[in-house]
Amino acid sequence: MDLSAFPDLRFLWPRPGVLEIRWSAPGLNAFSPALHRQLAGVWKALEDWEEVRAVLLVGEGGAFSAGGSFGLIEEMRASRKALLRVLREARALVLGPLDFPRPVVAAVEGVAVGAGLALALASDVVVAGKRARLLDGHTRLGVAAGDHAVLLWPLLLGLAKAKYHLLLNEPLTGEEAERLGLVALAVEDEKVYEKALEVAERLAQGPREALSHTKHALNNWPRSFLAHFDASLALEFLGFYGSEVEEGLRALKEKRAPHFGDAD
Known about the structure:
Elements lengths: L8 E7 L2 E6 L2 H4 L3 H14 L7 E6 L10 H9 L1 H20 L4 E5 L2 E3 L1 H7 L3 E5 L3 E3 L2 H4 L7 H9 L1 H9 L4 E2 H7 L4 E3 L4 H13 L3 H11 L1 H4 L2 H14 L4 H11 L10
Parallel strand pairs: 2-3, 3-4, 4-6, 5-7, 6-9
Antiparallel strand pairs: 1-2, 7-8
Helix pairs in contact: 2-4, 3-4, 4-5, 4-13, 7-8
Organism: Thermus filiformis
Pfam families: ECH_1
Enzyme class: lyase
């Protein structure tokens, strides 16, 4: 398998049949333009690799991902062509794991925010540290909650809780996320990788066809709401041309609360 198109990803085989995909980047593994593109495109490349019976997603250095990097956001704001490219990638980042024919497990340590959380929650089984910090992050930036949020949060949490956390940009610990049903398991922070690998190994040893078909049928639930997903993505990316995102981006860089009343 030629994986040269994915130089920012590390591919390991920690157990037979388990392909581990790792990434490392500045800013708590924030997705640069290149990393975002590679994590969106890797799923099609792996689809026909028969040796892969389960995929394990891991951010190196104790953080899953803080979401899109400043560089990615600034590139989108500077170029309509880049904005449309990233819009396509954002769709693939969510639908890639959902449509991938084998099970995908996410080991969520530290933080999972924005696009990072989208990748995690699009996986089949999410194992999070109890003290991990999960946050959608879009409204804090000044754009609509897009990516995975409108598609997956109402299905996992119910509409009332989804509205509360997405509109108020309220974070969740891994422990809270498990209690509410946003993730499958919350374990002690130092046990996240160990438990996620155990789950991935069990899945890799399971009946390949039965698991694939079960996953496909279960994921018809989110597929039924793809119109909502596409609408939320369009509204999110429309926001990158607005004034509110300017204040949101400044606030993130200055590590302060945004003042959106001043951005009208």
